[in-house]
Amino acid sequence: MAIVPGWHYPRYVAHRGGGVLAPENTLAGMRAAQAHGYAGVEFDVMLAADGVPVLMHDPEFGRTIAGRGAVALTPSEVLVRLDAGAWKGEAFVGEPVPLFADAAYWLIQAGIWMNVEIKPAPGYEIVTGRVTAEYTARAWARREPGTPASPAPLLSSFSEDALRAAAAARPELARAMLWQRVPADWLARVRDLGCVAVHCDHRRLDAPTARAIKAAGYGLMCYTVNEPARAQEIFAWGVDAICTDRLDLFAGR
Ligand code: G3P
Ligand code: MG
């Protein structure tokens, strides 16, 4: 199993952009991660009705953007005018839903590593995997001369269909399989998908499974680790990286 050249983890990864410090999946979140010295961010990508990828976690409006509606049925030109910041407080009123292309450009220029989580709305797994991979590859290929070095981006998804479609579209991009709990047949599945890494919920990971994943040569990142003592415990199991909401607690490490 070859790890894709040019790809490796930073130790600490900001979850959904800026964790608890900023509205999730916004450029304000990316700026918060940068300000706290993070070398990597994770964020979620979903397709708008016109097939344009945007940063979004939930398929339905209501939690991070006001109103009612489905992201997959709303054109990107409408989504980018919605307020994705107000739910997080007055300081973020007017923070827009970012286009993935804009967020990727900003992060790459800033030298910040991207874990692009492909987050398809139900029923859109294959197209979301394909389009997200295409946009990621294009953004990475277009980084400008003089851009600070960052490791190559990593795609991940809970959807095997999305990862297969990403692999078919852009096989050169590194991919990670996301599970809440790593299944017993994890090795066969990551081999079959051509993944380089496993991402999982740290609360459902045990030391023998972590050690087996590392012994087999795969990367291993856990979400969402918000306590430094827990991070140290799972690092001792061989976990490579943690994804955290508590940017403040892990800043500068
Ligand atoms: O990619 C790790 C983590 O973000 C997965 O959970 O729901 O926050 O996207 P979620
Ligand atoms: Mg995510």
From TrEMBL:
Enzyme class per UniProt: hydrolase
Q: Does the keyword Hydrolase apply?
A: yes
Superkingdom is Bacteria
Gene3D superfamilies annotated for this entry?
Answer: Phosphatidylinositol (PI) phosphodiesterase (3.20.20.190)
Residue intervals of the GP-PDE domain: 10-253
Pfam families in the cross-refs: GDPD (PF03009)
Q: Print the organism lineage.
A: Bacteria, Pseudomonadati, Pseudomonadota, Betaproteobacteria, Burkholderiales
Q: Which InterPro entries match?
A: GP_PDE_dom, PLC-like_Pdiesterase_TIM-brl
Q: What is its EC number?
A: 3.1.4.46
| The name this protein goes by in its record | Glycerophosphodiester phosphodiesterase
GO BP of this protein:
lipid metabolic process
List UniProt keywords, sorted A-Z.
Answer: Hydrolase
Give GO MF terms, alphabetically: glycerophosphodiester phosphodiesterase activity
